[in-house]
Design goal:
Layout lengths: L12 E7 L5 E6 L5 E7 L11 E5 L8 E11 L2 E9 L13 E7 L11 E6 L8 E9 L2 E8 L9 E9 L2 E2 L4 E4 L13 E9 L2 E8 L7 E8 L11 E2 L14 E10 L6 E8 L15 E6 L1 E2 L5 E2 L10
Antiparallel strand pairs: 1-2, 2-3, 3-4, 5-6, 6-7, 7-8, 9-10, 10-11, 11-12, 11-13, 14-15, 15-16, 16-17, 18-19, 19-20, 21-22
Length: 321
């Protein structure tokens, strides 16, 4: 199994890597200034570390897309490129201590998504029917239909965010009413903050697996997992099962703290599954962990157990000199 240099890319949180049919790996993530969206690409995962990033969108000076640009994800749908991201209008917190983020979509219809900022068109806010803090959208296809998966605050439910799923009419419009798949309910999901966020999905062995991140973005940050058979109604929450314990968490022995907000890709061999995530190597954070820039992008292969579930192991230690 391949060994990768870790961290792969420094100071890039919420990492997302997509291997396209053109043979390139495309990478995007939150940048420390939270002020723009960039893409880089390379023929290998290791090559992403040295690939030149191209800025394809910048925050507005004012309005709903003017502050705290978080967690972009790049998807290729029906021959076009789409990026989902979250943005706020102000950095002031509301009465509940929450940021004001909403989810947005931009589109590019050229084969090369890195040609120019001018090639990206704003499709606006993704409306979920609930006007509240929301973020970390991803999407996937099943039986020719597009699904949207994200995190959002429900004022009637304790905590900062829950996980929701809906079908899509097009890449920026929901077709069905959102259903809640998960909310913070176990003690490990509520350390510092009651959070379910950063969902990622992988389809293997007749099941869909959704990983997500919980608790505050310090050493308490950890990943949980939901799963569902692929031959049932995904919009029926009763079909989903949830792990009661984290499936990936800090490893104090190797100084890997707060691994989370992951995505999935595949290795250069086209077969080995790779988990992409961010992590820190220290716990002494000055001020708000959100503004500490040293959540670095890491990649590591993982395997599958005999029962068909993923075995993520532990966060690999840093191995660069």
């Amino acid at each position: 199994m391949a060994t990768y240099i870790n961290p792969l890319i420094i100071q890039r949180a919420d990492p997302f890597i997509y291997k396209h049919t053109d043979g390139y790996y495309y990478f995007t993530a939150s940048v420390p200034a939270y002020n723009l969206i960039e893409i880089r690409r390379a023929k290998t995962l290791a090559g992403l570390a040295h690939a030149a990033p191209r800025t394809i969108w910048r925050k507005h000076d004012t309005g709903p897309m003017s502050q705290l640009i978080w967690a972009p994800e790049l998807h290729h749908i029906d021959g076009k490129w789409f990026i989902y991201f979250a943005a706020a209008e102000t950095t002031d917190l509301d009465a509940n201590g929450m940021f004001q983020h909403r989810m947005f979509c931009i589109e590019c219809d050229t084969a090369d998504p890195m040609v120019s900022e001018d090639n990206w068109v704003e499709r606006g806010q993704v409306q979920t029917g609930l006007d509240s803090f929301c973020l970390d959208a991803t999407c996937f296809e099943k039986d020719g239909e597009l699904y949207y998966l994200w995190a959002q605050k429900d004022p009637e439910i304790k905590g900062n965010s829950n996980l929701y799923l809906a079908k899509m009419q097009n890449p920026w419009t929901l077709k069905t009413k959102p259903v809640m798949l998960s909310k913070p309910e176990f003690s490990w999901e509520g350390k510092g903050f009651w959070v379910n966020e950063g969902p990622a999905i992988i389809h293997r062995n007749g099941r869909y697996f959704v990983t997500y991140s919980a608790s505050a973005t310090d050493e308490n940050y950890a990943m949980g997992m939901l799963s569902v058979p692929d031959n049932v109604d995904l919009l029926d929450p009763s079909n989903w099962s949830k792990s009661k314990t984290p499936v990936f968490s800090s490893d104090l022995t190797t100084h890997q703290y707060g691994p989370g907000h992951n995505s999935f890709t595949v290795a250069e061999d086209g077969q080995t599954d790779i988990m992409v995530y961010h992590c820190r190597d220290y716990t002494e954070i000055k001020g708000d962990p959100l503004y500490d820039p040293n959540r670095h992008t890491k990649v590591q292969p993982f395997t599958w157990r005999a029962d068909g579930t993923p075995d993520f192991g532990k966060p690999v230690p840093y191995n660069y000199d």
